[in-house]
Amino acid sequence: xxxxxxxxxxxxxxxxxxxxxxxxxxxxxxxxxxxxxxxxxxxxxxxxxxxxxxxxxxxxxxxxxxxxxxxxxxxxxxxxxxxxxxxxxxxxxxxxxxxxxxxxxxxxxxxxxxxxxxxxxxxxxxxxxxxxxxxxxxxxxxxxxxxxxxxxxxxxxxxxxxxxxxxxxxxxxxxxxxxxxxxxxxxxxxxxxxx
Length: 195
Hints:
Blueprint: E1 3-5, E2 21-23, H1 31-37, H2 40-66, H3 70-97, E3 100-103, E4 107-113, E5 118-124, E6 130-134, H4 148-155, E7 158-162, E8 168-173, H5 176-185, E9 190-194
Parallel strand pairs: 6-9
Antiparallel strand pairs: 1-9, 2-3, 3-4, 4-5, 6-7, 7-8
């Protein structure tokens, strides 16, 4: 890994909207687009998950009819199935979607799990000391899992912004327009390119 300060950091970009969230690990797309662009492992997991949910639904229906009191067993098992499958899917979706940054005029509003708890924090641009760009994965991932390389492969490079203690202030997916904004707002930051 080679570190160096860029001699000229002016980048060309179309500009970004200051009134929108920039998601780190979520991308809105149709099922067809997801199926076309997703990895084989994602498709395999989705098929297995759907088959397992159907198998469990059939098993719960069979257990309900075999129970001594189907009127009690049916709502109980239906609740368990709803919690396990649609419920967990919704929970995972909300967790991934909860990581975003929102660029404001003088501050950055970040949301996500930076530590043990999900938090929303306002960060002044002046706190940024280092802007790391290049072939970089995100400095954090949903649920503090060790999946930064996977998200790097899926979404491309990330911009990691650090404070003077080299702690991560926030992470965002790389784009020239976002980098241009950060260069304008974070006037005291050093840009470091990682190869």
